Backbone:
């Protein structure tokens, strides 16, 4: 046999052997999606469409060890930034008392939740906010004194509102839900959470 | 006499917890767990499970005693520590609940729909699976986790389970990894095991099933996955579905080498 | 017929330690079901432990006791091989008695 043919045959065998041992990464992703679609039932407000990923979710479905390519991260942030809808009346700060209630409330959008009731943001699940609330999570950084440390300038208001609306506008693959973009919170609710963070009278800033 | 002493004890416990909770919530919760550990109500489910295993039921009036959980027909001791695994007679990878369904259908003649009618119990509406799982897993207490990846379908299940673990979806963009891929994190005051590292995976998997005090029920790993997905705002994970088996295979395999220690008791 | 209790009794240095796990819903009567109706109270109201006919523990319980209650107590005067019996009675008049041997 000519050397080039032998090389080709050996390469072919290696390829087939590799294929038998495990699926390619892309095949595995596709097969996992098929598996999931066949293994979930619709229930309550949770329809099977929830398994359809947008581009952000697809790109962010990777182990943390795998570095996201710089340009992919930049694309995610750009797309998500473009999705932010600021209030038409230009007022970004609402009522912090309501914001605290929203921050404490972990209900909304689960298959056993009543779709007619407003969702909470469940901020305390992941963040420290007011000093008085000791039952707080540590998945996200502490937000204690958020406004006190940053002030309430217009850029800070826009950043804060925008971060709650769509956290991935600023951090690609952030663990934080995109509360405005995905329709979890209403505009007024986001204003109220912004107030909780920025209002000098808010317990967060005391 | 009993009532007064108990009331006094409860008040004292409450006062201690109140004061100390300000300084170290995790330590106080650990003390609470220790106090609960004696008298784990899971034993009540274990007793029911052992009876169900031996009870003749279904159109074939047969017990589950001939069921092969992977180590031979009727061999229960150590079986859970090797699940999920490939079963040639079904040509698929199965976890404990799936295998029990298989045996209920094959040995007892039950219809699949009837056998899987109640996967999770509520009060006096009990689930056979929770009772059977309590007893069968208790028979693996002290055994070293040893989930194999020898069959190609076992390897495939692991790979697909891993993909599921990192799958971000739903209105909250949550994946399992959102909460379970970093060390020393917690939701509110609930510590979160890092399931991508050996220590976290071992601690988590070897303590399910467990009596969940807040539920007042013995809950299995199938329940845990279903309830995680509910909170992730996903739809309803089907009981004993292929996806549930794949994810279980991924998480169980990651716990290999640890000593199995369930049924446990959790908040 | 309610589920059996799990009872363990061990004697050491003249003291018998008894651990009992009871299967009971212990419904407080304060909870509401999905439709807003009160779930009726159903809880153990009396517990008695006897050793060779002699009462060694008598308790009056209420809705504050947890579901599937665990009770542990000690008494003197029991020997290995003796029988002890535990009886509970609930607010609906249901009752259950289980026995074990001290080891």
Residues:
């Amino acid at each position: 046999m000519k050397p080039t043919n032998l090389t080709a045959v050996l390469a072919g065998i290696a390829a087939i052997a590799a294929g038998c041992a495990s699926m390619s990464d892309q095949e595995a992703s596709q097969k996992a999606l098929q598996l999931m679609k066949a293994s979930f039932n619709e229930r309550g407000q949770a329809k099977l469409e929830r398994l359809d990923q947008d581009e952000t979710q697809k790109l962010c479905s990777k182990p943390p060890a795998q570095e996201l390519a710089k340009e992919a991260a930049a694309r995610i942030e750009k797309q998500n930034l473009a999705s932010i809808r600021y209030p038409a009346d230009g007022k970004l700060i609402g009522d912090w008392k309501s914001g605290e209630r929203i921050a404490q409330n972990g209900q909304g959008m689960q298959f056993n939740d009543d779709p007619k009731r407003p969702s909470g943001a469940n901020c305390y699940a992941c963040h420290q906010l007011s000093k008085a609330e000791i039952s707080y999570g540590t998945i996200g950084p502490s937000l204690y004194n958020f406004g006190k440390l940053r002030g309430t300038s217009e850029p800070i208001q826009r950043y804060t509102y925008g971060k709650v609306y769509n956290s991935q506008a600023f951090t690609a693959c952030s663990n934080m839900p995109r509360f405005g973009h995905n329709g979890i919170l209403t505009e007024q609710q986001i204003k109220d959470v912004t107030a909780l963070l920025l209002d000098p009278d808010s317990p967060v800033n005391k | 006499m009993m009532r007064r002493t108990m009331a006094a004890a409860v008040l004292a416990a409450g006062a201690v917890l109140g004061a100390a909770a300000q300084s170290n919530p995790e330590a106080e919760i650990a003390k609470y767990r220790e106090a609960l550990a004696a008298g784990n109500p899971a034993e009540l489910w274990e007793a029911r499970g052992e009876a169900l295993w031996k009870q003749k039921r279904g159109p074939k009036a047969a017990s589950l005693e001939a069921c092969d959980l992977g180590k031979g027909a009727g061999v229960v001791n150590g079986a859970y520590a090797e699940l999920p695994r490939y079963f040639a007679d079904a040509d698929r990878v199965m976890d404990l609940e799936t295998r029990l369904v298989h045996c209920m259908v094959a040995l007892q003649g039950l219809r699949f729909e009837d056998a899987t009618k109640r996967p999770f119990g509520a009060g006096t509406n009990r689930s056979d699976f929770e009772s059977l799982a309590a007893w069968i897993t208790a028979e693996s207490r002290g055994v070293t986790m040893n989930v194999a990846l020898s069959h190609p379908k076992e390897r495939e299940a692991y790979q697909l389970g891993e993909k599921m673990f990192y799958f971000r979806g739903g209105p909250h963009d949550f994946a399992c990894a959102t909460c379970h891929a970093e060390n020393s994190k917690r939701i509110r005051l609930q510590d979160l095991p890092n399931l991508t590292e050996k220590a976290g995976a071992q601690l988590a998997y070897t303590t399910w099933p467990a009596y969940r005090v807040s539920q007042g029920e013995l809950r299995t790993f199938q329940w845990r996955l279903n309830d995680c997905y509910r909170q992730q705002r996903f739809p309803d994970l089907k009981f004993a579905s292929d996806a549930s088996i794949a994810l279980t295979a991924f998480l169980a395999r990651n716990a290999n080498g640890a000593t199995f220690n369930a049924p446990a008791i959790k908040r | 017929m309610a589920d059996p209790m799990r009872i363990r009794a061990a004697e050491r240095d003249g003291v018998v330690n008894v651990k009992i796990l009871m299967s009971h819903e212990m419904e407080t009567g304060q909870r509401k079901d999905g439709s807003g109706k009160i779930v009726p109270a159903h809880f153990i109201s009396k517990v008695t432990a006897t050793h060779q006919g002699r009462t060694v523990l008598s308790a009056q319980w209420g809705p504050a006791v947890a579901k599937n209650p665990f009770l542990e107590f000690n008494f003197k005067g029991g020997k290995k091989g003796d029988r002890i019996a535990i009886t509970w009675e609930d607010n609906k008049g249901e009752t259950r008695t289980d026995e074990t041997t001290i080891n």
